[in-house]
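Board notes (copied after class):
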Amino acid sequence: QFELYQVIATFASGRPAAAVLERSADNGVTFTPYQYYSSSCQSDFGMNTTIGGADGTDVICTARDSQASAGTLSFTLWRLTQRPQDITGQTAFAALFNFSLVTHIRLRILQPVTRGQSTYQVSSFQVL
């Protein structure tokens, strides 16, 4: 296992209209969502668009990185401006630490930017 700090996927092509970053803590046997990306969180995932979670371990949906232009999708666990959290106290810190532990991550593209687009050009995929 490793402690995930940040994931950045940079697209040379347009970014997907909907995607989900998923994590596994059991060597890829099961995956659970870390963060959803969509230009319409409510219609794609039944979630409100959110900037940050209440305690840092909330799975959120953001429209921030889902524009059609080339660029990045990013997930930053520890940046307070994106995922505010109250990590005071041992229980809260333990929950956030466990949320950051992974063995595998994957980014699933669920909806293309434009109809008919079946490929994406990923220029870099960074895991920090």
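Comment from the instructor: Residues 78-85 have pLDDT under 50 and may be disordered. Strands lie at 2-3, 6-14, 18-24, 32-38, 60-62, 70-76, 101-102, 104-111, 122-127.
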